[in-house]
From TrEMBL, chain A:
UniProt entry keywords in alphabetical sequence: Signal, Transport
Family: Belongs to the bacterial solute-binding protein 1 family.
PANTHER family linked: ARABINOSE-BINDING PROTEIN-RELATED, OSMOPROTECTIVE COMPOUNDS-BINDING PROTEIN GGTB
Name of the protein: Extracellular solute-binding protein
Length: 425, 289
C-alpha cells in the first residue's frame, strides 16, 4: 500500500510537471511532409473554397499533407499571434500581416529567385526583406453604386471629384435614399472604408510614405492635412450621408444591406466584386474610383495578402513548396478571382474572360491607374514597414465610428490616434 | 510518519497540482510579466518595476474600461437578481406548466454566449425585428448597438437575459427549502403575503442571494465574449470595451503583453477584493438572520 501511494504520488507529480512545461518549439505540425495551414472564412471564402484549393495543390504535390486551420473570425492576424504564443504557430498562413512576426524572426524571408514570378516582388518590405508573397492586389476602396437609385435621384454621371460626390449624396438624400452604406459591429473595418479612401487620396497623394514618416515621428495625425481628412469624413457624416444607426451591422450584414438596396453607394475593397457578380440583387451595380478633391486620378491599393511561412517549421521545404504552389497555380488564381474578386499580381496572368461585369469594370479602373502611375497605398491596410503599428487598425476603426456618430470632433480624434500610436510603440 | 505523509500526498496531490498549474502558476507568470515590458515580437524582456501599473492609472482607455465594466457589473448584479427572484416566486408552485416554464427560463443559460451574442446582435440591429416592431407601433427606436451612449446598456441587457435563468433556478431551490410550517405559522399569526415574504421567505433566501450575487459579480466583471462578438468594443473608442476586452486587445493585437498583464492583475485584485467584501457582508447577513 505504501509503495503504491509513493508510486502514485510520483506519477501525479510527473504528470503535473509535464502539464506545466512549455513546448520548446514554436509550433508547426509533426514529422513527414505534413504542414498546418491557417485560413479564414468570409462570405466570399467559404470552407469549400479552401478545401478545393488545398486539394488542387496536393494533386500536384501528393507528398504534402495539409492540416487546415480556420481563424475564428476575419482577424486572422490576431489569431496567428495567439497560436504563436501558445506554441502552435502554423507552418503556412494566408493574408496574415507579417509585421511583428517578421521582426521577431518567426517568418521565412523569400529570396529574389522565389519571388521572380510575382509582379511586385518588392511590395511590403520589413527591414528590407520580403516575408509575404505579394500574390494579389486589392483596390481599397473603390465605390460600388446602385445604378437604379442613382437614376431615381437624377444622377447621370459617376462622381469624379469630391464636390460631385457631395452633390450626388445630396440628391440621394433628397430622394429619401441613404447615400452611403456602412457597417461595423465586430467587423470594424466596414466603418473606416470611407475614411481609408479620403486619407489615401488626400494625404497619401501628397506624401505616399506618410505612415513611414509617422513611424519616424516626422508627421502626426494631428497635422493639418490628416486632421483635414478626418474633418472631411466627419462633415460627410454630419450631413447625414452616412447612416450612423448602421454601425452595429457586421460585414456580412453590411454587404447584404447594399445588395438589398438599403443605400446607394458602398465603398468597399474590390473583393466585393465577386459578391456583386454572383449574389442576387434586383439592380445593376456600377463602380468608380474613390473621388479626389480635384478629380486627379488616385487609386488606393494594397499588394500583398499572400502566404507567409513559419521560419521554424519542422517541414520548412514542404511549407515553402506548398505556399508557392498555392499562389502560382493558374487554376487556383482563377478561383481566387471568381470567389474573392482578387487581382492576382502574377506576371503574365490575366483573369478569366467570363468574369462578371462588376469585376471587369473594377479591374479596368485598376489597370488604368497602373498605366498612369496613379496607385497609392490604401490607408489602414498596409502590413509592413509602411503600415500602422500593431493594434492601431482597430483604433482607426473606432476613430471612424466616433466621427460617424459625431461623438468626437476631428481634432479630438486626431489627438486620440496620436495618443494610441505612442502607446502602441 | 513519512509513509503517512506520502499516503495523504497521493490523495491531495492531484487537486493541488491542478490548482498550482492552472491557477497559481498563470497568476504568478502574469504578475512577473506585468513587471516587464514583455512584447513577444520585440525582445528582449526588461524589468520595469511597477511602471506598467503607474501608466495604467494615467491611461484614459483603461479608466474608461474600468467605468464601463463597473456599469455593466452593477446592472448585471442587480437586474437578474431582482427579476430572478420575481420569476422564481411566480414559478414556485406545482404543475406541468410551471415545470415547463422553469425549463424555458433556464434554456438561455446553457446556450453558448457566442450564440446568444449573434442572435441578439441580429435582433437589436437597426433593421432587426425589434426595431421593425417599434416602428410599426409608431415609436422611433434608438440605436441599440450603434449609439455609443446606449450600446453598453444593450450589452448589459443581453448578459442579464442569459443570466436570468441561473438566478431563477437558485432562488427556486432556495424557495423550496423554506419550511411550510413557518409560513403557516406566520399566516395563523395574521401575516399577509407581503409580510410573510418579508419576515419569513426573504431571510431564508439569504444563501441563494449570496450565491447569485457572487456568481453574477464575477461573471460580469470578466465579460469579454459578448463585447468581442457584438461590438468589438465600439461603436467608437471605448464605448463598450470592458477591462477583459482591453486585456486581450492589448496583449494579442498590440503585443504589449507586459502592460496587458498589469491590467489583468489589477482586474484580478478588484474582483477579489469586491467579491471578498460582498461575500463577507452577505454571509454576515446570513449569520445575523
Amino acid at each position: 500500500m505504501k509503495r503504491f501511494s509513493a508510486v502514485g504520488a510520483a506519477l501525479l507529480l510527473a504528470a503535473g510537471l509535464a502539464g506545466c512545461s512549455v513546448k520548446s518549439d514554436t509550433g508547426g505540425t509533426g514529422g513527414g511532409e505534413e504542414i498546418s495551414f491557417l485560413t479564414f472564412e468570409t462570405p466570399n471564402l467559404k470552407p469549400e473554397y479552401w478545401d478545393e484549393a488545398i486539394k488542387r495543390v496536393q494533386a500536384k504535390n501528393p507528398e504534402i499533407k495539409v492540416k487546415k486551420l480556420v481563424a475564428p473570425n476575419t482577424d486572422r492576424t490576431a489569431y496567428a499571434k495567439q497560436l504563436l504564443q501558445s506554441g502552435q504557430f502554423p507552418d503556412v498562413m494566408i493574408a496574415v500581416a507579417p509585421a511583428g512576426f517578421a521582426e521577431a524572426g518567426e517568418l521565412y524571408a523569400w529570396s529574389p529567385d522565389e519571388l521572380k514570378d510575382f509582379e511586385f516582388p518588392t511590395a511590403n518590405p520589413v527591414r528590407g526583406k520580403y516575408f509575404q508573397l505579394p500574390a494579389n492586389t486589392q483596390t481599397i476602396p473603390p465605390v460600388y453604386y446602385n445604378k437604379k437609385l442613382f437614376a431615381a435621384a437624377g444622377i447621370t454621371a459617376e462622381p469624379k471629384t469630391w464636390p460631385e460626390l457631395i452633390a450626388a449624396a445630396e440628391k440621394l438624400k433628397a430622394a429619401g435614399t441613404t447615400p452611403f452604406v456602412t457597417g461595423g459591429g465586430k467587423d470594424g473595418f466596414a466603418s473606416s472604408m470611407i475614411l481609408a479612401g479620403i486619407v489615401s487620396t488626400d494625404v497619401y497623394s501628397k506624401n505616399k510614405d506618410w505612415l513611414t514618416h509617422r513611424r519616424e515621428d516626422k508627421v502626426k495625425f494631428a497635422d493639418p492635412d490628416f486632421t483635414a481628412a478626418l474633418a472631411k469624413f466627419a462633415d460627410l457624416a454630419a450631413k447625414g450621408y452616412v447612416d450612423k444607426t448602421s454601425l452595429s451591422r457586421d460585414y456580412t450584414a453590411t454587404e447584404q444591406a447594399f445588395l438589398e438596396g438599403k443605400g446607394a453607394m458602398y465603398p468597399m475593397g474590390n473583393w466585393f466584386a465577386a459578391a456583386a457578380d454572383s449574389k442576387p440583387h434586383d439592380f445593376d451595380i456600377g463602380v468608380f474610383n474613390f473621388p479626389t478633391t480635384d478629380g486627379k486620378l488616385v487609386v488606393p491599393a494594397y499588394t500583398g495578402g499572400g502566404m507567409i511561412v513559419n521560419a521554424n517549421s519542422k517541414n520548412l521545404p514542404a511549407a515553402k513548396k506548398f505556399a508557392l504552389a498555392f499562389q502560382l497555380d493558374k487554376a487556383q488564381l482563377d478561383q481566387s478571382v471568381k470567389a474573392d474578386g482578387l487581382i492576382p499580381a502574377i506576371k503574365g496572368y490575366t483573369p478569366p474572360s467570363d468574369m462578371g461585369a462588376v469585376y471587369q469594370a473594377g479591374y479596368k479602373l485598376y489597370q488604368d491607374a497602373v498605366k498612369q502611375s496613379a496607385v497609392v497605398h490604401a490607408f489602414r491596410w498596409e502590413t509592413a514597414d509602411d503600415g500602422l503599428l500593431p493594434g492601431m487598425a482597430d483604433k482607426v476603426d473606432q476613430a471612424a465610428q466616433d466621427l460617424i456618430t459625431g461623438r468626437k470632433p476631428a481634432a479630438e480624434v486626431a489627438a486620440f490616434l496620436d495618443t494610441e500610436w505612442n502607446k502602441a510603440r | 510518519m513519512w509513509p503517512r505523509v506520502w499516503h495523504f500526498l497521493s490523495f491531495g496531490a492531484p487537486g493541488v497540482l491542478v490548482y498550482v498549474c492552472f491557477v497559481l502558476a498563470p497568476i504568478g507568470i502574469s504578475f512577473w510579466y506585468s513587471l516587464t515590458n514583455y512584447n513577444p515580437f520585440n525582445p528582449p524582456i526588461s524589468y520595469v518595476g511597477f511602471d506598467n501599473y503607474v501608466l495604467l492609472f494615467q491611461d484614459n482607455e483603461f479608466l474608461t474600461a474600468l467605468k464601463i465594466t463597473s456599469i455593466l457589473t452593477a446592472i448585471v448584479v442587480v437586474v437578474p437578481n431582482v427579476l430572478g427572484l420575481g420569476v422564481a416566486l411566480l414559478l414556485d408552485r406545482p404543475g406541468w406548466l410551471y415545470n415547463a416554464l422553469r425549463s424555458v427560463f433556464f434554456t438561455p443559460v446553457i446556450l453558448s454566449s457566442v450564440v446568444v451574442s449573434i442572435i441578439w446582435s441580429r435582433l437589436l440591429d437597426n433593421d432587426g425585428p425589434l426595431n421593425a416592431f417599434l416602428r410599426v407601433v409608431g415609436l422611433d427606436p434608438p440605436g441599440w448597438l450603434s449609439d455609443p451612449d446606449v450600446a453598453i446598456y444593450s450589452l448589459a441587457s443581453i448578459v442579464c437575459w442569459q443570466m436570468l435563468g441561473f438566478c431563477v433556478v437558485v432562488y427556486l431551490a432556495g424557495l423550496q427549502g423554506v419550511p411550510t410550517e413557518l409560513l403557516e405559522a406566520a399566516e395563523i399569526d395574521g401575516a399577509g403575503p407581503v409580510r410573510r415574504f418579508r419576515a419569513v421567505t426573504w431571510p431564508l433566501l439569504a444563501p441563494a442571494l449570496t450565491i447569485n450575487t457572487v456568481v453574477l459579480l464575477i461573471s460580469a466583471f470578466k465579460t469579454y465574449d459578448y463585447v468581442k462578438v457584438i461590438t468589438n468594443g465600439g461603436p467608437g473608442a471605448g464605448a463598450t470595451a470592458t477591462i477583459a476586452f482591453n486585456v486581450l486587445a492589448t496583449g494579442f493585437d498590440a503585443n504589449h503583453v507586459g502592460y496587458a498583464s498589469a491590467m489583468a492583475i489589477v482586474m484580478l485584485l478588484i474582483v477579489a477584493v469586491v467579491t471578498a467584501v460582498v461575500l463577507k457582508l452577505l454571509q454576515r447577513r446570513e449569520v445575523d438572520l
